[in-house]
Design goal:
mainly alpha
Length: 410
């Protein structure tokens, strides 16, 4: 029996890509919803064929051919209007769902039915999303497919280098993880639009790039001093969202480290959230528009992050060998200034390899967080106005002071 546990998400992912491309070029026969539904139909036919015989697949293909011909005829007779065949495709899928339920595969049938219901319900949002995706954005999505489904499987899964810490497959797997998280935030940004509220803007900014968000709002406050309060809130909230992203990376790559890091990093997260809430209450009348954010899944960005991650990984290993424990903290501080992902993933890999103890690992990440906050304050000082610089400096100083207290914990 084939592995059916991944049926809904694999079918959905593959055909959403194809459907999105067809939707963008305005092919009325099938688009962003119909292609996933048709793929689910084919998958269910194959699964039923394992129970009742391969003839079911042949019949399903014949039905699909008739369906396609009928769609072409309807399209030709519609005088340029979109006849829409999603309902007909849904009828085929739900027929197979009913048959699949009767042979005992309840979980898969329910999952497929749920996916279809979501695809039908999200019609306006999905069409709107397809309309907002430009050529550059779609190219970046295709590049993510390239790095995750084409490049990753062919990389060797073995360790190289003088410190035996460079594994091409695992490094690129983490690149895919980082780009995937950022791309998810970018998709949400496209769905919500540039006029999303301050909180959503801060969260999405933190997920995509808290540094880029800091740059955008510091510039905004410089040109419009009255928006300094909302800029301070977004910068703080984006930093908190960035720390939540660090939590997600640790949990995905080193659950053992997460057990040690949850307490101190959770306190740091709570401090940033509390400071952001205080600022928001003080300036609750102000509204914010999301700035333009670049697509994070560009192939160049992925390659650069992969190189940066490898360099940080080597630096952490070298720092431990040549300078001992103090060398690790120097590397963490320098790396954390501009990029939290690379140092976080480097530390989790070192913990997994037992090169760094978990109690040292969370301290390294906390030092990187403190260095990152300091760097953002420097960005605000250069790009923002004096009032915002003073406000962010005081707030970040409070958070960094808490960080120093946490470092003294045993």
């Amino acid at each position: 029996m084939a592995d059916t546990s991944k049926l809904p998400r694999i079918s959905l992912a593959l055909r959403l890509i194809v459907g999105l491309e067809r939707e963008r070029v305005r092919k009325p026969l099938a688009g962003i919803r119909t292609f996933p539904i048709i793929t689910l139909f084919g998958s269910l036919c194959a699964l039923l064929g394992e129970r009742f015989g391969g003839w079911i697949v042949a019949v399903g293909l014949a039905v699909l051919a008739v369906y396609a011909v009928a769609g072409i005829v309807l399209e030709a007779q519609s005088n340029g209007t979109n006849p829409g065949l999603t309902t007909e495709a849904t009828m085929l899928v739900m027929f197979c769902v009913g048959a699949y339920l009767m042979v005992g595969y309840t979980a898969v049938a329910i999952a497929v039915g749920g996916v279809v219901a979501v695809l039908l319900h999200w019609k306006p949002e999905m069409h709107s999303f397809a309309g907002k995706i430009g050529d550059r954005d779609f190219k970046a999505i295709m590049q993510f497919v390239l790095i995750s489904l084409v490049v990753l499987p062919v990389l060797p899964d073995r360790y190289y280098g003088p410190f035996d810490v460079l594994n091409p497959f695992r490094i690129w797997l983490l690149v895919v993880l980082i780009v995937g998280i950022s791309l998810g935030g970018y998709v949400a940004y496209k769905l919500f639009g540039e006029k999303a509220g301050a909180l959503i803007g801060a969260i999405l900014g933190g997920i995509i790039s808290s540094t880029a968000t800091t740059v955008s709002y510091a510039r905004s406050a410089h040109s419009n001093p009255a928006a300094g309060g909302i800029a301070a809130f977004v910068i703080l909230a984006a930093s908190a969202a960035s720390l939540a992203r660090v939590f997600a990376l640790i949990g995905a790559t080193s659950p053992g480290l997460l057990n040690q890091a949850a307490g101190p990093l959770g306190i740091m997260f709570g401090v940033l959230v509390a400071l952001a809430v205080i600022i928001r209450i003080a300036d609750r009348e102000q509204q914010a528009h999301m700035p333009q954010l670049g697509n994070p899944s560009e192939l160049k960005t992925a390659v650069l992050f992969g190189l940066l991650f490898a360099v940080v990984l080597m630096a952490v290993a070298a720092g431990e060998v040549y300078f001992g424990r103090s060398g690790l903290f120097i590397v963490a501080a320098l790396s954390g200034m501009t990029d939290m992902d690379a140092i976080t993933l480097s530390v989790t890999q070192m913990v997994n390899l037992a090169s760094v103890q978990p109690e040292t690992g969370w301290r390294l990440i906390l030092v990187a967080v403190m260095a990152n906050l300091s760097f953002k304050w420097a960005v605000v000082a250069v790009l923002g106005n004096r009032k915002l610089t003073l406000r962010i400096g005081l707030l970040f100083a409070a958070a960094i002071a808490v960080g120093f207290l946490l470092l003294t914990l045993k």
